[in-house]
């Protein structure tokens, strides 16, 4: 490039005391104000982290090597950076910020690294897990908006492990998708299907994130749960899961996903459900009433929460495309 | 693992307001107090970054994909995470914290990703670059301690690009190391060698870090420089470089490395040097007097700086192995 075109404000002689402001200035030529703000905060926190820990060159190199290993182990069926974000509590934090829920609606939780795009569409009552060692489970759910009206035609992604605690993609010899499906809610907002009772399982812990957990004396287990994802234009994309109450890992989930409102008891079908859904009366039963929030309501709540949080921090911001940037006017 | 062995304090229902303290508590079982402190600061800053930017799920995923790409492109001869740390100003910051310099000693600067361990040992006056297109340069240096006494037998790593701005390892068809060598200072603390005049060059910018720079409208250039690394037991490991004054990128170095005290003029040998070093009088000449700091002096200064910086932040710390940890007594 032609050096005469360099527009970066002159700098040199960078010290502990002036490197941060200079790095921020260096990034200030970007025309997108959201990118500038995100980079400004990123550089500030990265530098403050090093300053407050007095990070040594050895520790810095250990960190860079760790991140390199995390990148190297990523593949089409393994996303170790999501896993790292999960175990550091960042994933659940970002979900809570971006998908705030008004009271009475269904809370979200971590996506995890095992959602795929190859699940097959299923009809009401179909069987989504073919694991013969699992305990058969009837799942009957309703889907409503915050006014209590049923929502028809929502695309619902559902996925769970087999009875050994592994998702289909974790079996190298798998024949195709299993333990996952896509359904649509009917005109009464109902969807129901046959699955197996979820079991607790460890997140993949044979890689760098597993080594980190081991060093920190943390276990890699997640309590038993079933994942759900809901999509319909006009409604906020909901990524959530239902957790089994009294699971041994209920209060120490490796990825911080458990919420009281998402914790359920597995019951028995009993005479009414047995008759209606053609199962025995002691068949395991899971029921849940999901409540989706509209896009407009979510956006308003997100912006309101942002304003409150940033006001508390003394940051004057304005919203651009629903996200805060410094208000310099 | 046996769930009855879980020692993690119970938690669930994690929200924007309580996830950080819970994540820190989850990491608190580690017995090493330095690791606990580094993790505590890391989680705090990572979460504060997300809270202050109100990071969206899309931005989070963009960030994770970027880090994955950075990891994927790393190889034996390319360390893209070092490059990322360099362009964010973190590398120069960590060097400044870990290798503080008393006044009168030679300042350090970024290592960069091109140091290797295959350079050959050379004698005084030998030729370290065989690039016939480069401008021949005589380099004559002295090496002293902070009391002005010459230091003998220091291991000195020296490396520079060829005249096209590429290090040897960047040429896929290279025959062996070139433009790099290891020397030893003599009993008068002198080392001298023949090289070529350094040229400005871009850092590797065909990968994710290059894309980041482009998005930020930053150029990838470094001003012309020659790298030096000094090692001798009892002295603080010095990683530094000499920069050419009036280089077009002197005040906009992509990796923030330039310091006034490391900026030099290339002169002419003149009659005295011409005779002594057997070159013509108008042969290009670079001279520099390096000053190394003892381990003990560096450690004392590092601990003093840590105390001052952390006092300013209101953090009560004690030093363990030269690094701060919270002082809980």
UniProtKB/TrEMBL annotation, chains A, B:
<dbReference type="InterPro" id="IPR015889">
    <property type="entry name" value="Intradiol_dOase_core"/>
</dbReference>
<dbReference type="Pfam" id="PF00775">
    <property type="entry name" value="Dioxygenase_C"/>
</dbReference>
<keyword id="KW-0223">Dioxygenase</keyword>
<comment type="similarity">
    <text>Belongs to the intradiol ring-cleavage dioxygenase family.</text>
</comment>
<dbReference type="InterPro" id="IPR007535">
    <property type="entry name" value="Catechol_dOase_N"/>
</dbReference>
<keyword id="KW-0479">Metal-binding</keyword>
<dbReference type="InterPro" id="IPR050770">
    <property type="entry name" value="Intradiol_RC_Dioxygenase"/>
</dbReference>
<dbReference type="GO" id="GO:0018576">
    <property type="term" value="F:catechol 1,2-dioxygenase activity"/>
</dbReference>
<feature type="domain" description="Catechol dioxygenase N-terminal">
    <location>
        <begin position="32"/>
        <end position="105"/>
    </location>
</feature>
<feature type="domain" description="Intradiol ring-cleavage dioxygenases">
    <location>
        <begin position="112"/>
        <end position="292"/>
    </location>
</feature>
<keyword id="KW-0560">Oxidoreductase</keyword>
<keyword id="KW-0408">Iron</keyword>
<dbReference type="InterPro" id="IPR000627">
    <property type="entry name" value="Intradiol_dOase_C"/>
</dbReference>
<protein>
    <submittedName>
        <fullName>Catechol dioxygenase</fullName>
    </submittedName>
</protein>
<dbReference type="InterPro" id="IPR039390">
    <property type="entry name" value="1_2-HQD/HQD"/>
</dbReference>
<dbReference type="GO" id="GO:0009712">
    <property type="term" value="P:catechol-containing compound metabolic process"/>
</dbReference>
<dbReference type="GO" id="GO:0008199">
    <property type="term" value="F:ferric iron binding"/>
</dbReference>
<dbReference type="Pfam" id="PF04444">
    <property type="entry name" value="Dioxygenase_N"/>
</dbReference>
């Amino acid at each position: 490039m032609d050096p005469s075109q360099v527009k970066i404000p002159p700098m040199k002689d960078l010290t502990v005391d002036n490197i941060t402001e200079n790095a921020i200035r260096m990034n200030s030529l970007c025309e997108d104000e959201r990118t500038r703000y995100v980079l400004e905060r990123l550089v500030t926190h990265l530098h403050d982290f090093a300053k407050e820990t007095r990070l040594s060159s050895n520790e810095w190199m250990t960190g860079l090597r760790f991140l390199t290993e995390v990148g190297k182990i990523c593949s089409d069926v393994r996303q170790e950076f999501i896993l790292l974000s999960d175990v550091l509590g960042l994933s659940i934090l970002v979900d809570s910020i971006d998908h705030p829920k008004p009271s009475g609606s269904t809370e979200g939780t971590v996506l995890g690294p095992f959602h795929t795009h190859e699940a097959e569409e299923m009809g009401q009552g179909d069987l989504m897990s073919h694991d013969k060692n699992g305990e058969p489970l009837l799942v009957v759910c309703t889907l409503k908006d915050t006014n209590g009206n049923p929502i028809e035609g929502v695309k619902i992604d559902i996925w769970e492990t087999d009875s050994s605690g592994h998702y289909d993609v974790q079996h190298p010899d798998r024949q195709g998708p299993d333990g996952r499906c896509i359904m649509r809610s009917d005109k009464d907002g109902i969807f129901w299907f046959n699955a197996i009772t979820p079991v607790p399982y460890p997140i993949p812990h044979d890689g760098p994130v597993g080594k980190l957990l081991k060093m920190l004396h943390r276990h890699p287990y997640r309590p038993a749960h079933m994942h759900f994802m809901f999509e319909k234009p006009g409604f906020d994309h909901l990524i959530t899961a239902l957790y089994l109450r009294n699971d041994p890992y209920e209060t120490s989930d490796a990825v911080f996903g458990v919420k009281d409102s998402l914790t359920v008891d597995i019951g028995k079908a009993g005479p009414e459900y047995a008759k209606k859904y053609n199962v025995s009366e002691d068949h395991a039963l899971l029921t849940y009433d999901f409540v989706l929030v509209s896009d407009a309501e979510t956006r308003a709540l997100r912006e309101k929460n942002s304003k409150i949080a940033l006001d508390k921090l003394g940051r004057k911001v304005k919203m651009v495309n629903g996200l805060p940037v410094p208000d310099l006017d």
